[in-house]
Amino acid sequence: MSDGGTGRAARTKRADAQRNKKTLLDAAAAVFIASGVEAPVRDIAAEAGVGTGTIYRHFPTRAELIIAVYQHQVEACAQAGPALLASSPTPHTALARWIDLFVDFLVTKHGLAAVLQPDSSGFDSLHTYFLDTLAPVCAQLIDAAAEAGEVRSGLTAYELMRGVGNLCIGAEHDPRYDARRLVGLLVEGLRRPHDEAPTA
Amino acid sequence: MSDGGTGRAARTKRADAQRNKKTLLDAAAAVFIASGVEAPVRDIAAEAGVGTGTIYRHFPTRAELIIAVYQHQVEACAQAGPALLASSPTPHTALARWIDLFVDFLVTKHGLAAVLQPDSSGFDSLHTYFLDTLAPVCAQLIDAAAEAGEVRSGLTAYELMRGVGNLCIGAEHDPRYDARRLVGLLVEGLRRPHDEAPTA
DNA sequence: GACCAAACGGAACCTCGTTCCGCTAACGAT
DNA sequence: ATCGTTAGCGGAACGAGGTTCCGTTTGGTC
User: Residue B92 burial (CB < 10 Å; 0-12/13-18/19+)?
Assistant: First the structure.
């Protein structure tokens, strides 16, 4: 077989390529922390000590690089959903806590929220990845809360995720704007008034 | 005196300059409707049939042009505040209606909301203009509602405006995302629970 | 050690905001 | 009506950013 010595099943990447990919991810993470997610690709290349072409060989687009950098955290957030549902007193509390997690994540990554929207000039893949990963989890929490009669119905998980994401935009450099508080209000508004009839 | 014939008090602009300014505003408005607020300056220049330099003579920056185009509507929105307060059954209702007005405005202008954030690469003036114009009105409505004991305290008009603006981002090309609904939820969350003590 | 495709680096390209500057023509003075 | 001044104009040029291209380097194989 043409399987490389290191190799698992199929075609293994060349050693320097693997090394570069990791170097790039580390460099990108560092630059994102230092300069925000909107940092120029060239800066990341410089930090990693590679040419710009190398970045594009590994990540077809800036958005893919961002996805790769945050993938683990997004997945961790997704996995926290069921756990919170199990450990929280009520589903609405679980939902609120889970959203807090998400907000903390977004708010601490400079500029990430801003780039989460569809058609943000080629950032569709980012938007899609985040939403595809997290919306199902969110839906599960919403459904649980709805079944418990704690929230109004009619709001989709997609909408809620987008709303929360939007509220987090620009929170990082503006001391006058507290995204957490607004998200809290939104989640509070989601709560079904006691006099309102359940849908189910 | 060096006062022009047409002139009011001081130096009057040349006739062609005034004409071009109006042409530019019209062209910009048309292009914004057709292609969104993010349309390239060159497109606007082309639509108006002038060179790009001409745009910059009249509007030092893209943001200033956008401000000029929407100035009337923003001011109309600001003026609607007191009127709504007078004509609505309760201050919270007035606030909700006024915010609806603002949301309708934002949602119908493709991409406007997205450009309303601070440091959106040189769009600070836009952010400042919108907030300076509308936040005081919003504050008046919030205060009235707070005095009536209808809303929680602690949220600034600035924060609310930014939150609402953020929620409107990207609402225009995404049928799955209804900004109005989310803003409605937010305003609902603002309502003070009946069992909560007033602050004042 | 030689060969070859995978990977690399970075110049080049495109778009977009903004600036610069030589030319045009509006307008007040005569 | 003509002239001179200069506001105003057009669009080339610049810089920044994402992405592509291609000649060169190099890891892996025989």
Answer: buried
